[in-house]
Task: structure prediction
Amino acid sequence: MLNQYYNAEINILLCRCRLVSVSRDWRKNIFLPLDFWRLYYHPDSHVNIFLENTPALIPSGKLILIPPNTRLTHDMKHDFKQFYIHFLAAAPYDHCRTGIYPIETDTAMSQLLESLMAEAEEKESLVPDRFFSIRLEALCGLALSRFPEEAVLQNHASKQIETALHYIDRFYGEKLSNRKLARVSGMATNSFIRLFRLKTGVAPQHYLREKRIRQAAVLLRYTEKSIPEIAEECGFASRYHFTRVFKQIRNFSPAEFRRYDFSSTI
Result:
Protein backbone atom coordinates (compact mmCIF):
# COMPACT_ATOMS: atom_id res chain seq x y z
CA MET A 1 0.00 0.00 0.00
CA LEU A 2 1.35 3.42 -0.99
CA ASN A 3 2.26 5.62 1.98
CA GLN A 4 0.43 8.89 1.37
CA TYR A 5 1.37 10.65 4.62
CA TYR A 6 3.33 13.87 4.36
CA ASN A 7 6.89 13.73 5.71
CA ALA A 8 8.38 17.09 6.71
CA GLU A 9 11.89 15.55 6.84
CA ILE A 10 12.91 17.78 9.75
CA ASN A 11 16.69 17.82 10.15
CA ILE A 12 17.98 19.38 13.39
CA LEU A 13 21.21 21.30 12.85
CA LEU A 14 21.80 22.95 16.22
CA CYS A 15 20.11 23.60 19.56
CA ARG A 16 21.40 25.92 22.27
CA CYS A 17 20.18 27.64 25.41
CA ARG A 18 22.63 30.48 25.93
CA LEU A 19 23.26 33.97 27.22
CA VAL A 20 23.81 36.24 24.20
CA SER A 21 26.63 38.62 24.98
CA VAL A 22 26.04 42.05 23.48
CA SER A 23 29.19 43.66 22.09
CA ARG A 24 29.70 47.32 21.35
CA ASP A 25 30.55 46.75 17.70
CA TRP A 26 27.61 44.48 16.81
CA ARG A 27 26.49 46.96 14.15
CA LYS A 28 29.58 46.04 12.15
CA ASN A 29 28.18 42.55 11.62
CA ILE A 30 27.45 41.68 8.02
CA PHE A 31 23.96 40.45 7.29
CA LEU A 32 24.26 36.85 6.13
CA PRO A 33 21.34 34.98 4.59
CA LEU A 34 20.54 31.95 6.73
CA ASP A 35 19.50 28.85 4.85
CA PHE A 36 17.56 27.13 7.60
CA TRP A 37 14.60 27.59 9.91
CA ARG A 38 15.17 29.22 13.29
CA LEU A 39 12.95 28.61 16.30
CA TYR A 40 13.52 31.17 19.08
CA TYR A 41 12.35 31.58 22.65
CA HIS A 42 13.44 34.40 24.95
CA PRO A 43 12.18 33.64 28.48
CA ASP A 44 13.28 36.80 30.27
CA SER A 45 13.25 39.83 27.99
CA HIS A 46 11.96 41.26 24.73
CA VAL A 47 14.59 41.39 22.01
CA ASN A 48 14.87 44.40 19.70
CA ILE A 49 15.95 43.43 16.21
CA PHE A 50 16.37 44.73 12.71
CA LEU A 51 14.35 42.66 10.24
CA GLU A 52 15.59 43.36 6.71
CA ASN A 53 16.96 46.67 8.13
CA THR A 54 13.57 47.55 9.68
CA PRO A 55 13.23 47.80 13.51
CA ALA A 56 11.08 45.04 14.98
CA LEU A 57 10.49 43.24 18.27
CA ILE A 58 10.65 39.60 19.39
CA PRO A 59 8.46 39.37 22.53
CA SER A 60 9.56 37.51 25.62
CA GLY A 61 7.81 34.28 26.58
CA LYS A 62 6.66 33.65 23.01
CA LEU A 63 7.77 30.90 20.66
CA ILE A 64 8.91 32.40 17.35
CA LEU A 65 9.49 30.77 13.95
CA ILE A 66 11.72 32.44 11.39
CA PRO A 67 11.79 30.99 7.84
CA PRO A 68 14.99 30.49 5.81
CA ASN A 69 16.69 33.51 4.27
CA THR A 70 15.21 36.01 6.74
CA ARG A 71 17.90 38.56 7.49
CA LEU A 72 17.99 39.98 10.99
CA THR A 73 20.32 41.09 13.75
CA HIS A 74 19.70 42.33 17.28
CA ASP A 75 19.62 45.88 18.63
CA MET A 76 20.07 45.11 22.32
CA LYS A 77 22.05 47.12 24.87
CA HIS A 78 22.26 44.34 27.45
CA ASP A 79 22.86 40.58 27.44
CA PHE A 80 19.81 38.35 27.06
CA LYS A 81 18.97 34.65 27.40
CA GLN A 82 17.94 32.76 24.27
CA PHE A 83 16.82 29.22 23.45
CA TYR A 84 17.03 28.38 19.77
CA ILE A 85 16.90 25.53 17.27
CA HIS A 86 18.21 25.64 13.71
CA PHE A 87 16.61 23.07 11.40
CA LEU A 88 15.79 22.16 7.81
CA ALA A 89 12.41 21.02 6.47
CA ALA A 90 11.14 19.59 3.20
CA ALA A 91 9.00 21.32 0.58
CA PRO A 92 6.85 23.36 0.79
CA TYR A 93 8.54 24.54 4.01
CA ASP A 94 11.75 25.29 2.13
CA HIS A 95 10.02 28.18 0.39
CA CYS A 96 8.13 30.49 2.76
CA ARG A 97 7.62 34.21 3.12
CA THR A 98 10.37 35.74 5.27
CA GLY A 99 9.52 37.39 8.58
CA ILE A 100 9.05 36.58 12.26
CA TYR A 101 6.03 34.44 13.14
CA PRO A 102 4.72 34.00 16.72
CA ILE A 103 3.48 30.45 17.31
CA GLU A 104 0.57 29.69 19.61
CA THR A 105 1.43 27.06 22.23
CA ASP A 106 -0.77 24.85 24.37
CA THR A 107 0.08 23.34 27.77
CA ALA A 108 1.70 20.20 26.36
CA MET A 109 3.83 22.18 23.90
CA SER A 110 4.90 24.64 26.61
CA GLN A 111 5.91 21.76 28.89
CA LEU A 112 7.95 20.20 26.08
CA LEU A 113 9.65 23.54 25.44
CA GLU A 114 10.53 24.06 29.09
CA SER A 115 11.99 20.56 29.46
CA LEU A 116 14.06 20.96 26.28
CA MET A 117 15.40 24.32 27.48
CA ALA A 118 16.53 22.78 30.77
CA GLU A 119 18.19 19.86 29.00
CA ALA A 120 19.85 22.13 26.42
CA GLU A 121 21.58 24.03 29.23
CA GLU A 122 22.80 20.77 30.78
CA LYS A 123 23.91 19.27 27.44
CA GLU A 124 25.84 22.33 26.23
CA SER A 125 29.13 20.44 25.99
CA LEU A 126 27.68 16.96 25.34
CA VAL A 127 26.70 15.10 22.18
CA PRO A 128 22.86 15.17 22.05
CA ASP A 129 21.28 11.74 22.52
CA ARG A 130 18.59 10.42 20.21
CA PHE A 131 15.74 10.96 22.70
CA PHE A 132 16.61 14.63 23.06
CA SER A 133 16.90 14.93 19.26
CA ILE A 134 13.53 13.24 18.65
CA ARG A 135 11.84 15.65 21.07
CA LEU A 136 13.49 18.60 19.33
CA GLU A 137 12.05 17.32 16.04
CA ALA A 138 8.64 17.03 17.71
CA LEU A 139 8.75 20.65 18.89
CA CYS A 140 9.80 21.87 15.43
CA GLY A 141 7.06 19.77 13.80
CA LEU A 142 4.40 21.18 16.12
CA ALA A 143 5.62 24.71 15.41
CA LEU A 144 5.52 24.13 11.64
CA SER A 145 2.00 22.71 11.94
CA ARG A 146 0.94 26.10 13.37
CA PHE A 147 2.84 28.21 10.83
CA PRO A 148 0.36 30.37 8.86
CA GLU A 149 -0.61 28.67 5.62
CA GLU A 150 -0.73 31.97 3.74
CA ALA A 151 3.02 32.39 4.34
CA VAL A 152 3.82 29.09 2.57
CA LEU A 153 4.67 30.09 -1.00
CA GLN A 154 3.21 27.19 -2.94
CA ASN A 155 3.73 28.70 -6.37
CA HIS A 156 4.81 25.36 -7.84
CA ALA A 157 1.25 24.23 -8.56
CA SER A 158 2.28 21.78 -11.25
CA LYS A 159 2.84 18.05 -10.80
CA GLN A 160 5.66 18.10 -13.35
CA ILE A 161 7.52 20.94 -11.64
CA GLU A 162 6.93 19.50 -8.16
CA THR A 163 8.47 16.26 -9.42
CA ALA A 164 11.51 18.15 -10.70
CA LEU A 165 11.91 20.09 -7.45
CA HIS A 166 11.78 16.95 -5.33
CA TYR A 167 14.30 15.31 -7.66
CA ILE A 168 16.67 18.28 -7.32
CA ASP A 169 16.30 18.18 -3.52
CA ARG A 170 17.41 14.53 -3.51
CA PHE A 171 20.06 14.50 -6.25
CA TYR A 172 21.47 18.07 -6.33
CA GLY A 173 25.00 16.67 -6.07
CA GLU A 174 24.69 14.82 -9.38
CA LYS A 175 24.92 16.13 -12.94
CA LEU A 176 21.42 17.39 -13.67
CA SER A 177 20.95 18.81 -17.13
CA ASN A 178 17.72 20.45 -18.23
CA ARG A 179 17.17 17.48 -20.51
CA LYS A 180 17.44 15.03 -17.60
CA LEU A 181 15.13 17.09 -15.37
CA ALA A 182 12.62 17.36 -18.22
CA ARG A 183 12.73 13.58 -18.71
CA VAL A 184 12.16 13.01 -14.98
CA SER A 185 9.14 15.34 -15.22
CA GLY A 186 7.77 13.63 -18.33
CA MET A 187 8.09 16.73 -20.53
CA ALA A 188 9.92 17.96 -23.61
CA THR A 189 12.98 19.99 -22.65
CA ASN A 190 11.91 23.39 -24.01
CA SER A 191 8.39 23.07 -22.58
CA PHE A 192 9.84 22.05 -19.21
CA ILE A 193 12.19 25.07 -19.09
CA ARG A 194 9.34 27.47 -19.89
CA LEU A 195 7.01 25.93 -17.30
CA PHE A 196 9.74 25.79 -14.63
CA ARG A 197 10.49 29.49 -15.09
CA LEU A 198 6.78 30.33 -15.04
CA LYS A 199 6.14 28.42 -11.79
CA THR A 200 9.34 29.27 -9.87
CA GLY A 201 10.45 32.58 -11.39
CA VAL A 202 13.91 31.24 -12.28
CA ALA A 203 15.49 28.87 -14.79
CA PRO A 204 16.11 25.24 -13.73
CA GLN A 205 19.90 25.60 -13.64
CA HIS A 206 19.63 28.80 -11.58
CA TYR A 207 17.42 26.99 -9.05
CA LEU A 208 19.86 24.05 -8.96
CA ARG A 209 22.85 26.35 -8.38
CA GLU A 210 21.06 28.14 -5.53
CA LYS A 211 20.14 24.78 -3.96
CA ARG A 212 23.76 23.64 -4.11
CA ILE A 213 25.03 26.86 -2.52
CA ARG A 214 22.42 26.73 0.25
CA GLN A 215 23.41 23.17 1.08
CA ALA A 216 27.11 24.06 0.93
CA ALA A 217 26.54 26.91 3.40
CA VAL A 218 24.93 24.50 5.86
CA LEU A 219 27.81 22.02 5.50
CA LEU A 220 30.40 24.76 5.95
CA ARG A 221 28.78 25.95 9.14
CA TYR A 222 27.68 22.70 10.75
CA THR A 223 30.22 20.08 9.66
CA GLU A 224 33.99 19.67 9.63
CA LYS A 225 34.07 18.40 6.06
CA SER A 226 36.83 19.91 3.97
CA ILE A 227 35.99 22.47 1.29
CA PRO A 228 36.94 20.06 -1.54
CA GLU A 229 34.66 17.41 0.03
CA ILE A 230 31.78 19.90 0.22
CA ALA A 231 32.41 21.02 -3.36
CA GLU A 232 32.20 17.43 -4.59
CA GLU A 233 29.15 16.56 -2.44
CA CYS A 234 27.26 19.60 -3.74
CA GLY A 235 27.94 18.85 -7.40
CA PHE A 236 30.72 21.28 -8.27
CA ALA A 237 33.42 20.23 -10.71
CA SER A 238 36.27 21.48 -8.54
CA ARG A 239 37.10 23.53 -5.46
CA TYR A 240 37.96 26.44 -7.76
CA HIS A 241 34.54 26.29 -9.45
CA PHE A 242 32.81 26.00 -6.08
CA THR A 243 34.72 28.95 -4.60
CA ARG A 244 33.98 31.15 -7.62
CA VAL A 245 30.23 30.44 -7.57
CA PHE A 246 29.93 30.66 -3.77
CA LYS A 247 31.66 34.03 -3.67
CA GLN A 248 29.59 35.30 -6.57
CA ILE A 249 26.37 34.53 -4.67
CA ARG A 250 27.41 35.12 -1.03
CA ASN A 251 30.15 37.76 -1.40
CA PHE A 252 32.35 35.48 0.73
CA SER A 253 34.65 32.68 -0.26
CA PRO A 254 33.80 29.33 1.38
CA ALA A 255 36.84 29.71 3.67
CA GLU A 256 35.78 33.24 4.71
CA PHE A 257 32.23 32.05 5.36
CA ARG A 258 33.49 29.20 7.54
CA ARG A 259 35.66 31.59 9.59
CA TYR A 260 32.82 34.08 10.14
CA ASP A 261 31.91 34.53 13.81
CA PHE A 262 28.18 33.78 14.11
CA SER A 263 28.17 34.18 17.88
CA SER A 264 26.92 37.77 17.72
CA THR A 265 24.06 36.98 15.34
CA ILE A 266 20.67 35.64 16.41
